């Protein structure tokens, strides 16, 4: 099977038909829920407070619903209007933004406690239009992501790197932006279940006075 | 989009990074609805220190509300009368929704549109960073 990001840009691939197919497929829902829970485990957020979380590539809000169950508030960004329309239909709690993450994260400094992303950031590595420069888009993404987090804020992003080169590109752009951390690989021996999580932190927390 | 979100979104264009006028955006021709939401006092308490109150006042004025206090009220979590204040903030920040309208960056004058509660931050190719 070819991977969606090799077929077309995200906003083209996840058209209305694909969005519904994706959202209604119980196997996909199950995998998505599992990856969201794993990402939350990697974030290890305080349980006693409601956290403010950005969901990058929120799609139809499958991960967001889990955040809502956890008592967290979230805002989702996605480039596919059809995915967001599906999220609206499903009456998710979080606010939804139509945006291209390669153009940056349009939030003021220190907005979020944490960032979660499931199966989205590998799209940044694609040069699907003539003026898309993956390297510049990755840097823009990570620089503005870093700024949008409070100091010490964390990122857990599951993604599908196409090859080692993409893995390097993503990690080095994160590092240039100032993030600390790296990649966690779950089930590294299993071709089918192997999963990559980029786990980052934006500096060290401010000292509480 | 919740009123709360206006306190965090800024212009997406790179040349507006750090520009004082790129936040908050200016809200114009906005259609509002009040939508009942679960009251989560701990979330309101958690978000208070992160609010930019002057930006709250400015956006509220864009939407025709000039009756908010000029300073963020002091909240003592042990004082039960603060429940009312937290509920008021909940009504303003969480239940007030911007359904349609325009958001304008006062630094570069770019206009972003809100449609069906979703703000559109996609940039035309010549402004894409
Ligand atoms: Zn601007």
TrEMBL record, chain B:
GO biological process, one term: rRNA (guanine-N7)-methylation
Highest taxon above the source species: Eukaryota
Keywords: Cytoplasm, Methyltransferase, Nucleus, Transferase
Subcellular location: Cytoplasm; Nucleus
Entry protein name: Multifunctional methyltransferase subunit trm112
Signal peptide: none
Source species of the chain: Komagataella phaffii (strain GS115 / ATCC 20864)
Keyword Methyltransferase: yes
Protein family per UniProt: Belongs to the TRM112 family.
A Pfam family the protein falls into: Trm112p
An example Gene Ontology molecular-function term: protein methyltransferase activity
One CC-aspect GO term: cytoplasm
Main location: cytoplasm
């Amino acid at each position: 099977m070819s991977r969606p990001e090799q077929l077309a840009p995200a906003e083209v691939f996840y058209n209305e038909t694909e969005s519904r197919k994706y959202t209604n497929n119980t196997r996909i829902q199950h995998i998505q829920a599992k990856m969201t829970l794993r990402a939350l485990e990697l974030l290890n957020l305080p349980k006693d407070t409601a956290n403010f979380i950005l969901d990058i590539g929120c799609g139809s809000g499958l991960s967001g619903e889990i955040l809502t169950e956890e008592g967290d508030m979230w805002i989702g960004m996605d480039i596919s209007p059809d995915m967001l329309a599906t999220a609206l239909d499903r009456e998710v709690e979080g606010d939804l933004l139509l945006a291209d993450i390669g153009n940056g994260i349009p939030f003021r400094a220190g907005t979020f406690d944490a960032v979660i992303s499931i199966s989205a950031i590998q799209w940044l590595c694609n040069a699907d239009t003539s003026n898309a420069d993956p390297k510049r888009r990755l840097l823009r993404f990570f620089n503005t992501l870093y700024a949008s987090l409070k100091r010490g804020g964390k990122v857990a992003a599951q993604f599908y790197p196409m090859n080692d080169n993409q893995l390097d590109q993503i990690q080095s752009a994160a590092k240039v932006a100032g993030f600390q951390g790296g990649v966690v690989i779950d089930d590294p021996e299993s071709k089918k279940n192997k999963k990559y999580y980029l786990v980052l932190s934006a500096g060290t927390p401010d000292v509480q006075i | 989009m919740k009123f709360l979100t206006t306190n965090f979104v800024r212009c997406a264009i790179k040349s507006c990074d750090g520009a004082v006028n790129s936040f908050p955006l200016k809200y114009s021709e906005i259609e509002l609805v009040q939508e009942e939401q679960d009251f989560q006092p701990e979330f309101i308490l958690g978000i208070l220190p992160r609010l930019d109150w002057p930006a709250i006042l400015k956006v509220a004025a864009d939407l025709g509300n000039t009756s908010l206090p000029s300073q963020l009220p002091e909240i003592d979590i042990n004082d039960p009368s603060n429940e009312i204040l937290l509920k008021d903030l909940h009504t303003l920040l969480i239940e007030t929704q911007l359904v349609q309208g325009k958001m304008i960056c006062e630094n570069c004058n770019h206009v972003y549109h809100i449609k069906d509660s979703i703000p559109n931050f996609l940039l035309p190719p010549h402004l894409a960073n």
